[in-house]
Amino acid sequence: MPAAQRKPAKRETLNLRIKPEVRELIDRAARLNGKNRTEFVIGAAQSMAHDALLDQTRIELEPAAFRAFVALLDAPPAPNKRLRRTLSTKAPWEA
């Protein structure tokens, strides 16, 4: 479908309850950044969301530490009593 015929992406509403002093703070910061309140809040929320996800998924290591980390991941675990019990136990969704 040509770009001129595409429908615009659907937008959703997000309602927030906010104290007047917080709203004014956000409005002042938005004006200083040349944005409206919605643009500022969405940008800040997106930035924090990305940071939160990266905090849970990204690992930074020095090259030597990274090589040691990968070696541990690649090494099979040594068989032991707890590992055998875990591997022989049915998963909760299989029970």
Detailed description of the structure:
- With 95 residues, the protein is an all-alpha fold.
- The protein has a domain at 15-75.
- It has four helices and no strands.
- The longest helix has 21 residues, at 37-57.
- It is elongated, with a radius of gyration of 25 Å.
- It starts with 19 loop residues before the first helix and ends in a 7-residue tail after the last helix.
- The mean pLDDT is 90.
Task: Name the beta content range.
Answer: under 5%
Shape: elongated
- The low-confidence parts are none
Write down the secondary-structure element order: HHHH
* Main beta sheet: none
Mean pLDDT: 90
By DSSP, the count of extended strands is 0
**Helical proportion, percent range:** 55-70%
Distance between the first and last residues' Cα: 49 Å
* Number of helices, where a helix is a run of at least 4 consecutive DSSP H or I residues: 4
Structural class: mainly alpha
- The whole-angstrom Rg is 25 Å
What features would you highlight for this structure?
elongated; mainly alpha; 4 helices; single chain; 95 residues
Summarize the structure.
This protein is mainly alpha-helical and 95 residues long. It has a domain at 15-75. Helix content is 57%, strand content 0%.
What does the secondary structure layout of this molecule look like, with pairings?
Layout: H1 20-32, H2 37-57, H3 63-74, H4 81-88
